[in-house]
Amino acid sequence: MKTVAIAGTFDSKGKEFLFLKELFEEIGLKTLTIHTGTFSPLFSPDVSNNEIAAEAGENLSEIVASKDRARATAAMSLGVEKIIPRLYNEGKFDGIISLGGSGGTSIITPAMRALPIGVPKIVVSTMASGNTEQYVGTSDVILIPSIVDVAGLNLISTRIFSNAVFAMAGMLEHKLTKKIEQKPLIAASMFGVTTPCIDQAKSYLESKGYEVLVFHATGTGGRTMELLIQNGYFKGVLDLTTTEWCDELFGGVLNAGPHRNEAAGFCGIPQVVSVGACDMVNFGPWDTVPKQHRKRNLYRHNPTVTLMRTTVPENEAIGKKLAEKLNMAKGKTALFLPLKGVSMIDAEGQPFYGPKEDKALFDALRQNLNRQVVQLYEMDCHINDREFALAAAKKLIEMMET
C-alpha cells in the first residue's frame, strides 16, 4: 500500500489537512502527517513541529516567543527541507502533498524540490498563478490553483482538495507499463531561432542510437539542464544555444543564473558548445522594455517577447564569460563558431544581422579560450545550416566514443 506524506500548517489549516488525510485513507492510501506550523496542531501528527525546528537548529518555544513570523517561516522551511528527503530515502512515503497560501507554499516547496524528479509532488496553493518559478524552480512540483483561499471547507475548496487527492492517488497507483527503450541520453539546448540546427543534429544523433532531450533556453530550461547534467543523466551535452548569458549579463528576463555552462565541465562529461542566439536579450511585451533600451535594435518576436540585438561591447563580454566557463572544464570540450550568423534573425537580410557584433563575440572567444582545455572549430556557415549541425553532432559522438 502506498503512503502519501501530508505536510503543512496543521495549526492554522488543520481542518483542511484533516480532510486530505481522511480522504486518502478512505480510498485506501496510508498517510504520513508532518506539521510545519509553529503552534499546536488540530490533530496529532506523525512528525511534530518540534522535530522540524530542531532540524533547523532552532528551539520551537524560542521561535514562538520571538513573535517573528519571518524567523519562524525560515526555520520551518529549512527544517522540513532537511527532514523530508531523509524520510523519503528511508522509504517512509511515496508522494507528498500540501496546501497553503504564500507562507505555506514557501515553506514546503524547497523540500519538494529536494526530492528526486518523478516523485509525485502536489501543492494546492493560492500562489498557483503568474510567476511560480520561486516555488517550482527546476523541479516537477505540481501547483494546483486553490481558486478560493485555503481557509475552510466549502463547496469549491472541497472539490479542489479532492481533485488533488485523486490526482495524487492516480500517480501512485498507476505505473507506466509500456516499455521504453533505454538509450544513452544527450542534453541539447535550443531556442526558437536555433530550432533548425538542433532538429538536424537531434535527427542525426538519434540515427546513431542516442536519445536527445532538448531544453528550451529560457532560464529555467538552462538551469534544469545543468541540474540533470550534474545528477548524471547524460552521456554527452550538445549545448549549442547559450543565449541565456545575454539575459544574465544585460538584464533580460530569461537568465539562467551565474552557473550556466558549468555542470558538464565540472562532471567531465563530453560537451560541444556554440553561441546560438547570443545576438539577443529577451524582454517581455514591447512596453516592458527598459526605457534606456527603447532606441536599440528591437524585434517583436511575438506579443509577449521582445528581443534586443546585442552590441559589440556586449558581445565581447559574452565571449569572455563563455570562455571563462569553458576553461573550467575537466572533460572533453569543443566550441563551434558559425561565422555566418548565430540565429535565424542573424543572417544576411534579417533584422539582427550583425557581422561586427558577431566578430566581437568570436574574437573574445578566440582570445580568451584556453586551447589546452577547449578545442575550437570555426565553420564558414550559419548556425542553422545542416553542415554546421552535423559537424557538431559528429564531434560529440567522437568525444563520447573515444
Automatic annotation (TrEMBL):
NCBIfam families: PRK02399.1-2. This is Uncharacterized protein. CDD domains: Tm-1-like. InterPro entries: Tobamovirus_resist_UPF0261, UPF0261, UPF0261_C, UPF0261_N. Residues 2-175, 183-400 form the UPF0261 domain. Pfam families: UPF0261, UPF0261_C.
